[in-house]
Design goal:
Elements lengths: L1 H27 L4 H9 L3 H26 L7 H17 L8 H10 L3 H27 L8 H24 L1 H15 L4 H13 L7 H28 L6 H15 L10 H11 L5 H29 L5 H6 L6
Helix pairs in contact: 1-12, 2-13, 3-4, 3-6, 3-10, 3-13, 4-5, 4-13, 5-6, 6-7, 6-9, 6-10, 6-11, 8-9, 10-11, 11-12, 12-13
């Protein structure tokens, strides 16, 4: 079983690397690298600092929203949450298929003593709010510019799926006694030796959903989710100025939509290849020449990765994460 699981992980990793390589090739196919270098030499570093600041601000917004979601379960100070968020996002970028997501609830449980299952529930709620805010962004962008034929239905499909998931989570909270009873009966039937542990985990997970009936906190979390997508759009917009691109704000929002959909694909760590392909695709919609679009993709991707790495490593040292091996050990598939 272990060998089979390891083989599947290797197969998935190879498939992701192949797809990333293919998308990277398609992004730069036929582009003269001398023209790409010309674009990179014209960088306005003041605006690039705005891009870097926007990345840090996005991490801060995520930490603030996480504190709001966790508040009905347990109050956690902002700075530990910011540090955990930064380390978690570094793990997401470094470990393929976003399985680094589990690092945050594991660190939260270890450093702040929030039950792991409650931390996982808070992250699930986050993702639902992200999906709904993203669907709203797709609606707004589609009203201004014709997106690629595949982008609009995929964006709406994501929003619908997250809405259904959020509805299920709300039901799990409202009907928690009945649901927990069903889970306990199933556990007693299938895993009699672990029934008590399964029941306790399920109860703590449901407790992590306590933000859902708390309308004030939920409304704040929804507003912060919308703010996160506007922050991403703002990062793209500031980055246009870094390369002297005269593009409207809707171009930055369109780019945000396409880059978000691109992240869904299996890819190499840090979305290398897929980020560049969808960035070039988005800029083509607004008449940006391919060499300059490739310059943009390389510059902004590198800036974002360097900021995430610097902040994540610094916060990891503050949290006394001993190294990469400990970080990987927090991910079940890497234990």
């Amino acid at each position: 079983m272990c060998k089979s699981g390891r083989g599947k992980r290797w197969l998935s990793a190879v498939g992701g690397l192949f797809l990333s390589g293919l998308l990277a090739y398609l992004a730069v196919r036929g582009v003269a690298w001398s023209e790409v270098l010309v674009g990179l030499r014209g960088v306005r570093y003041g605006f690039l600092l705005l891009t870097a600041g926007g990345v840090v601000a996005s991490l801060a917004l995520r930490a603030w929203r996480w504190a709001v979601i966790l508040r009905p379960v347990q109050r956690v100070r902002f700075w530990p949450l910011f540090a955990i968020t930064a380390v978690g996002f570094l793990a997401i970028l470094a470990i393929p298929f976003r399985i680094g997501e589990v690092v945050r609830p594991v660190l939260l449980a270890d450093r702040e003593r929030v039950p792991l299952s409650s931390g996982v529930a808070s992250v699930v709620v986050e993702r639902c709010l992200d999906g709904l805010a993203f669907a709203a962004l797709v609606v707004m962008v589609a009203a201004w510019i014709p997106l690629p034929d595949w982008a609009r239905p995929l964006g709406y499909g994501m929003g619908g799926a997250y809405l259904l998931l959020l509805g299920f989570l709300a039901w799990a909270w409202l009907a928690r006694e009945r649901g927990l009873l069903v889970i306990s009966r199933i556990a007693e039937w299938t895993l009699p030796s672990k029934a008590a542990a399964v029941g306790a985990i399920a109860q703590r997970f449901v407790q992590g959903l306590r933000v859902l009936p708390d309308f004030r906190n939920l409304a704040t979390a929804i507003l912060l989710s919308g703010g996160l997508w506007f922050a991403g759009t703002g990062i793209n917009y500031a980055s246009f100025f870094a390369l002297g691109l005269d593009l409207p704000l809707v171009a930055a929002a369109t780019l945000q939509v396409l880059l978000t959909l691109g992240v869904l694909l299996p890819a190499a760590p840090a979305s290398v290849g897929s980020f560049h392909f969808f960035a070039v695709m988005g800029l083509r919609l607004f008449g940006v020449p391919d060499p300059l679009a490739v310059s943009y993709a390389i510059l902004i991707h590198a800036t974002s990765m360097l900021v995430h790495a610097a902040v994540g490593i610094g916060c990891g040292l503050a949290l006394q994460v001993t190294g990469w091996r400990e970080l990987k050990s927090m991910v079940p598939n890497h234990r």
